Amino acid sequence: MNDVASTRAEAHDHIQRLREARGIKGDYNDISNGVLVSSLNEALNLLSDQLYTTPTHFFLELIQNADDNTYPSGAVPRLHLSLYRKVGKEIFRSDCNEIGFTFRQLDALTRIGKSTKQAADGCKGYIGEKGIGFKSVFKVADVVRIASGCYEFELNRRNTIGMMLPIPCNFPSDDRIKNHTQFLLELKRNEDYRQIRGDLKRLGSETLIFLRKLKQLDVSINGERKTYELRTDNWNSNFGGETATISETTDQQTKKTKYMIERQTVADLPPDPRREAVATSEVVVAFAVKDRITPIVKPR
């Protein structure tokens, strides 16, 4: 079996094979509700509800996942997070211009605790390493629709172990963006919509500094769009070291902020089964500055 589906039919076959590997054959609604399955379903519900205290943590997981993605050569890695109302529904959607899922990534996304993230040269980056965090999306949505490459499917919490069992379905055509991996959530509660809106507005542009790949982050709330773009300079002679510049663009204006960056690698980390093959970690500190000797001080 190819690891990357090249047609919708092949993608459908991948999903069916994945379901069969988990003991589910035949009709998508024909799932035994024995003790083991029932217990797993209850554990999944408990996990998605109590994994994090705030319902909005899920979009940080989506940012982290986007930073792990593989991007086409020459493309600027970017992620667009949008919140909007459509035909009486409240929608959260993420769009990423990565190359698309492999079968292994599809499998990891719908499993518990499995991940395709590997430590590069024994070095730990800035993000979590467990795919388990994706389950936090079900704190705010019962149904998550996903499109990536030739894969189009949904995960439905209302079905027995539905968070683990993808069902092929067409992604809404009005929302589909070619050559993007997309997640679409129909929010369960207006309260979640309001909290997501507030947290998106407070999402700091500095987030980009501490990511490895993402260079552009777009945030849209009911059509009002803000774009953050990151430019780095490994050696800026005017500042005597590494700098980063973040451009924050709205419809009215563009504001630029420069940061001085300091990095320190911590070596010989003690073995930890939760972080296999990770021996070092990098600590990064960023200071907003006007010039080499004048910091920008903001209330927190």
Automatic annotation (TrEMBL):
What InterPro entries does the record point to?
A: Auxin_embryo_med, HATPase_C_sf
**Where on the tree of life does the source sit, at the highest rank?**
Eukaryota
Question: Where do the coiled-coil regions begin and end?
Answer: none
Q: Which NCBIfam families match?
A: P_loop_sacsin
Name the UniProt record assigns to this protein? Putative heterokaryon
- What organism, scientifically named, is this protein from? Diaporthe ampelina
